[in-house]
């Protein structure tokens, strides 16, 4: 017998600290770095490099507690709960990549935002948040360059 699964509850402000922060950049029809990076509340980072990255495959490293605190502050500063709204009409370019952020919070709530980098009308702050997450986690060492969306 299959259990009915309830959808995860939406977080509310003030945001609780995250338990897991997961970010995935997909490939495109060009040399877009494709990778997944995930950090937990303790600062343990898991990397899975796919295409157009210096470090292919899986690896792990750690960031400091201060960087974990900074990531938590950024989720509020960049208004994570409202970054999936559209600010202007959607225009799609078929060869672009996606960046998908999933935050699972300590209270059990979660938020996921899919950002189509080919023009989906999302706020410019979303791209800034994605790039800040990359910078704090130190992914440029594994990508080979800092990828700007």
Would you give an account of this structure?
It is a single chain. A 6-stranded antiparallel β-sheet has the order 4-3-2-1-5-6, with helices on one face. A hairpin with an 8-residue loop joins strand 1 and strand 2. The mean pLDDT is 87. The protein has 3 helices and 6 strands. The radius of gyration is 16 Å and the shape is globular. 26% of the residues are buried. The protein has helices at 65-77, 124-137, 140-143, and strands spanning 18-25, 34-40, 44-51, 57-62, 98-105, 110-116. By secondary structure, the chain is α+β, with helices and mostly antiparallel strands. 21% of the residues lie in helices and 30% in strands.
User: What's the alpha carbon Rg, rounded to whole Å?
Assistant: 16 Å
Q: What form results from the Cα inertia axes? A: globular
Give the structural class: alpha+beta
Largest sheet: 6 strands, antiparallel
The SSE order reads EEEEHEEHH
**Total DSSP E strands:** 6
Low-confidence stretches: none
Query: How do the strands of the widest beta sheet line up side by side?
Result: 4-3-2-1-5-6
The proportion of strand residues reads: 25-35%
Overall average pLDDT: 87
What is the percent of helical residues? Answer: 10-25%
For the record, give the distance between the C-alpha atoms at the N and C termini, rounded to a whole number: 45 Å
Number of helices: 3
Summarize this structure briefly.
With 149 residues, the protein is of the alpha+beta class. Helices cover 21% and strands 30% of the residues.
